[in-house]
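All the exercises in this workshop are built on plain-text protein records. Sequence and backbone structure share a record, each on its own labelled line. The question running through the whole workshop is how a given chain folds. The record below serves as our worked example for the rest of this section.
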Amino acid sequence: MTAVYIILAVLATVLVLYIVFIIGPTILSFDKIFGKKSAEPLEGRDIANSYFAPFEQMMRDAVARVEKTYELQRVKTTSYDGLDLYADYIDRKSDKTVAFFHGYSASPLVNFGPHTEYFAERGYNVLLVFQRAHSVSGGEYCTLGVAERFDVLSWVDWIDKTPAKNAVLYGISMGASTIEYAAQQINSEKIKALVLDCGYLSPYLQIYRDCKRRRLPGKLIMPILSVMFRHKLHEDLKMNTAEALKNNRIPALFLHGKADMTVPYNDSRVNYDACESKKKLLLPDGLHHTLSFSTGSDGLRAEIFDFIEENFN
């Protein structure tokens, strides 16, 4: 019986340690990962030691020029679950619109300052979407693109009510994955192209990678997060963008810098291979996460722009 008691004591100790060091912290971290994001502007972020640092002033200057040059109208739509979702809109009285969907814990102009300037100069109306649970948009939880796929449909409905005849949806990181999840459900004739920049394959995989980078036991943490995600948010943390793209019919350009250390560029290759629509894959060398358009060559930007416009009426 002594051996049995020892085994039970060991198991009890392991269980207690698992609860104290894995389950407890994972439960406590749920709101930090998925809870409301303040979406701080560039000046509120500590990026001194990040890959972003060399480009900070360039990004700030682009944002400042946009805010000085264009009137940003605050517009609103309503989500499938009754949330107020907001965007800033630059109305160029054009028949062309670009809708930008930002990444995790970012804001539209943080991700899309240079993009906004580039497209607005070329006569595009620009819709800068605040994703749910970010900044001014409603929602208690962000779901890293999974539930946000329905918000894309709400913004597409909003675009359908405008005079513009041609529109492109452009997403970065979480924003790209959001559009990828939604693509198969978009029926609007106005949406002529998608630009999908450095999207990941699933929130589960991306959080697991982050655990590995932080030297955390992802294999123990992720099953707990997944169960909580399904229980609290009624969605699947493992939902795969490649599976969703198998039924996409909208022309799609996949863009991913090969120097991306946050989301491996192979994720975009997998999504590209799965996509059934007209498509193009650009994997530029030396460009970092979310910065391909902003810091890439004029030729790269022209290639992106040309893909979009060749699908317009």
Observations:
- The mean pLDDT is 91.
- The domain at 42-202+239-309 is CATH 3.40.50.1820 (Rossmann fold).
- The first helix runs from residue 2 to 34.
- The CA atoms of residues 23 and 224 lie 7 Å apart.
